[in-house]
UniProtKB/TrEMBL annotation:
Bilayer disposition of the protein: Multi-pass membrane protein
Main location: membrane
Membrane-spanning ranges: 20-42, 62-85, 97-116, 150-172, 179-200, 212-235, 247-269, 281-305, 312-330, 336-355, 367-387, 407-429
Keyword Membrane: yes
GO cellular component, one term: plasma membrane
Domain Ammonium transporter AmtB-like: 61-458
Organism classification: Bacteria, Bacillati, Chloroflexota, Ktedonobacteria, Ktedonobacterales
GO molecular function: ammonium channel activity
Designated name of the protein: Ammonium transporter
Organism of derivation: Dictyobacter aurantiacus
Length: 460
């Protein structure tokens, strides 16, 4: 009887699955046809006349290499985060970073790049003149005069991609997959793109005020860090979360591998932001490495003092915090200043993580706010202290070099970015709440690897 009754049910489920699959297949094929036809309305990659002699092949090679380095950082975040979570959620975390890589890559081509770097509208957002990359071709742009506009576009795409990937650390092990897809698309469009335009876009209001952010301390890290804090508050704690208890990391070597790849990729992140194979790129490369080393040693020393053992994970996390902090300053400060930034950021982020885990009842699971939010805040403010016009003539001197006004400009940029990102992310998640922000209790207990993706990270 059991077999006889179960068979029709199983058949109906199979038919239903096949019907859904066929419908999705037809919809995707139809979408492909529509997009293919729409391509006739957009200029090709070689849009516009250009002088080949204006293109510097060395600069172009360096920026494309840097774009590849920054791209590697997104799956590196997956390994870094994936090693920290429980073994039943490692696949889901790495999968989420690859999902974000795919979503934002397409969003950036259709809309994101134009909203950030298109013709300015009131200092707030870019226009749609570059939508679909119309007019973005082989000719250089005002942003990078020695490389093809396309090269600058794809380099900037990698920054837009990694920003939402950083946020997922705040709600690992409990986010609903379909809601994450919508959230990433909406957050990139409504939060990242406006902030990036304010700071980097020609005509952006923070750019016009003289705010310094060489490679994304405010645009990427502060925005992601405070979005992570808002996300942790709205989505809520893990069901098994215990205040003050450290994470039961499933794979410390994954964490170390992720940190090493992030350190490696960060040379493209910062030195690539010189947009040329130039002395400024060399300077940014050197201070990036130095600050990371100083922060890694700071975290190691603090963990040694707190736990009587020099933690490998703490050392790796400290390096990442140092990389975050040097990012806004990397094109404006010298090597000695980068050591000070690394130590300062190491102390601030370690203390913030300690306070959050011990006394604040918010489950920012992988401490995105402490590491990226407060690391970015520290670096952006210290840029206003240590910046030297002698290092970068396009920048400004900081407080220690005779320009106290720069420090106040940096503080303003920090306050605006953190407030906007936190508030918009909070509201966005509240709007998405009816879709379901988190998985069921049963799925959370089972782990997202099996419950959501049907794939195990380990088969022991």
């Amino acid at each position: 009887m059991i077999t006889t009754e179960a068979t029709p049910i199983a058949v109906k489920k199979a038919v239903s699955r096949n019907r859904i699959f066929i419908i999705q297949l037809v919809v995707l094929l139809g979408l492909g046809v529509i997009v293919g036809y729409a391509s006739t309305f957009f200029a090709g990659a070689s849009a516009g006349a250009f002088n080949s002699k204006a293109i510097n092949t060395g600069d172009t090679a360096w920026v494309l290499t840097s774009a590849a380095l920054v791209m590697v950082m997104t799956p590196a975040v997956g390994f870094f985060y994936g090693g920290m979570v429980t073994s039943k959620n490692v696949v889901s975390v790495i999968k989420q970073t690859l999902l974000i890589l795919a979503i934002v890559s397409v969003q950036w081509v259709f809309l994101g790049y134009s909203l950030v770097f298109g013709n300015d509208i009131g200092g707030v957002i870019g226009g749609l003149n570059y939508a679909g990359l119309r007019g973005v071709g082989y000719a250089p742009s005002v942003y990078a005069p020695t490389i093809p506009h396309l090269a600058f576009m794809i380099f900037q795409a990698m920054f837009a991609i990694i920003a939402p990937a950083l946020i997922i650390g705040s709600f690992v092990e409990r986010i609903r997959f379909r809601t994450l897809v919508i959230f990433v698309l909406a957050w990139s469009t409504l939060v990242y793109d406006p902030i990036a335009h304010w700071v980097w876009g020609t005509g952006g209001w923070l750019h016009n005020l003289g705010a310094l952010d060489f490679a994304g301390g405010t645009v990427v890290h502060i925005s992601a860090g405070f979005a992570g804090l808002a996300s942790a508050i709205v989505i809520g704690k893990r069901r098994n979360m215990q205040q003050g208890e450290p994470l039961a990391s499933n794979n410390v070597p994954f964490v170390l591998l992720g940190a090493g790849l992030l350190w490696f990729g960060w040379f493209g992140f910062n030195a690539g932001s010189a947009l040329a194979a130039s002395p400024l790129a060399v300077s940014a490369f050197v201070v990036t490495n130095t600050a990371a080393a100083a922060a890694a040693l700071t975290w190691m020393a603090l963990s040694w003092a707190e736990h009587k053992k020099p933690s490998a994970m703490a050392t790796a996390t400290g390096a990442v915090c140092g990389l975050v902090a040097i990012t806004p300053a990397s094109g404006f400060v010298g090597p000695v200043a980068s050591i000070a930034i690394g130590i300062g950021a190491g102390v601030v982020t370690y203390v913030m993580l300690f306070i959050r885990s011990k006394w604040i009842r918010i489950d920012d699971t992988l401490d995105v706010w402490a590491a990226h939010g407060m690391g970015g805040v520290t670096g952006a403010i210290l840029t206003g202290l240590f910046a030297e016009k002698a290092i970068n003539s396009a920048g400004s001197n900081g407080l220690l070099f005779g320009n106290p006004g720069q420090l106040w400009t940096q503080i303003l940029a920090v306050l605006v970015t953190m407030t906007y990102s936190f508030v918009l992310t909070f509201l966005l998640l509240k709007i998405l709440a009816p879709l379901g922000l988190r998985v069921s209790a049963a799925d959370e207990e089972k782990g997202l690897d099996i419950a959501v993706h049907g794939e195990e990270g380990y088969r022991l």
